[in-house]
C-alpha cells in the first residue's frame, strides 16, 4: 500500500507539471511564439512518457493488491480502493483521489481552451491563404478570348 501511495503522489506531481505546461502553452499560443511552443511540446512529451510509466506501474500494484485482498482479476477504481483501504492509508488515498480529480478537470478545461485557440489560429491561416490565393480583381474576358486573365493573382493556384 505504501508503494501504491508513493506512485499516486508522483502522478499528482506529474499532473501538476502537465497543468503548468498547458497553462504556459496557452500564453504561448496567444503570443504566437512557434519556437517556444515547439520546446514546450517536447517537454510535454517527455512528461507524458513518465506519466505513462507511472500509470503502468500503478496498475501492476493494483493487480497485486487485488490478489492479496482476495479479488484477483478485479480492478477497482481509486475511489473504491480508497474507501476499502485500511485506516492509515484511507485518508491519504481519499485526499489524492480528490486532488487528481481536480487536476484532471482543470487540465481538461485548459486543454479545451487551447484547442479553441489553435482552431482560431487555423481559421486565420486558412483565411489568409484564401485571400492571397484569390485574384485581387475580378476575372475578366477580353473579346475573343476563351480563358480568363490572371494578371492580379499573387499565387498561382496550380502550383
Question: Any idea what the CATH architecture is?
Answer: Up-down Bundle
| Number of beta strands | 0
Low-confidence runs of at least 5 consecutive residues: none
| Top-tier CATH class | Mainly Alpha
Strand percent estimate:
under 5%
The total tally of domains equals: 1
Q: Tell me the helix content.
A: over 70%
H/E series: HHHH
Instruction: Summarize model confidence as the mean pLDDT.
Output: 83
Roughly how many Å apart are the termini? 63 Å
Largest sheet: none
**CATH topology (fold) name:** Methane Monooxygenase Hydroxylase, Chain G, domain 1
Shape: elongated
Helices, by number, come to 4
Please state the CA-atom Rg, rounded to the nearest Å. 27 Å
CATH superfamily: FlgN-like
Task: Write a brief caption for the model.
Helix content is 75%, strand content 0%.
Question: Please, could you describe this protein's structure?
Answer:
The chain is mainly α and 159 residues long. It has a single domain (2-133), classed as Up-down Bundle (Methane Monooxygenase Hydroxylase, Chain G, domain 1), CATH 1.20.58.300. Helices cover 75% and strands 0% of the residues. The protein has helices at residues 2-31, 34-68, 78-84, 87-133. Helix 1 runs parallel beside helix 4 (87-133). The N and C termini lie far apart (63 Å).
SSE diagram, text form:
Layout: H1 2-31, H2 34-68, H3 78-84, H4 87-133
Which features characterize this protein?
159 residues, Methane Monooxygenase Hydroxylase, Chain G, domain 1, elongated, mainly alpha, single chain
Amino acid at each position: 500500500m505504501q508503494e501504491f501511495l508513493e506512485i499516486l503522489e508522483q502522478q499528482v506531481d506529474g499532473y501538476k507539471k502537465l497543468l503548468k505546461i498547458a497553462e504556459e502553452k496557452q500564453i504561448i499560443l496567444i503570443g504566437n511564439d512557434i519556437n517556444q511552443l515547439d520546446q514546450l511540446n517536447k517537454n510535454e512529451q517527455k512528461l507524458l512518457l513518465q506519466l505513462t510509466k507511472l500509470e503502468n506501474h500503478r496498475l501492476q500494484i493494483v493487480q497485486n493488491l487485488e490478489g492479496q485482498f482476495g479479488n484477483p482479476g478485479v480492478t477497482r477504481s481509486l475511489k473504491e480502493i480508497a474507501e476499502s483501504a485500511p485506516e492509515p492509508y484511507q485518508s491519504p488515498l481519499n485526499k489524492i483521489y480528490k486532488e487528481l480529480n481536480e487536476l484532471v478537470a482543470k487540465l481538461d478545461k485548459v486543454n479545451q481552451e487551447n484547442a479553441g485557440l489553435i482552431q482560431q489560429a487555423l481559421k486565420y491561416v486558412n483565411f489568409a491563404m484564401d485571400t492571397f490565393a484569390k485574384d485581387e480583381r475580378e476575372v475578366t474576358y477580353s473579346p475573343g478570348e476563351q480563358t480568363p486573365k490572371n494578371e492580379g493573382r499573387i499565387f498561382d493556384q496550380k502550383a
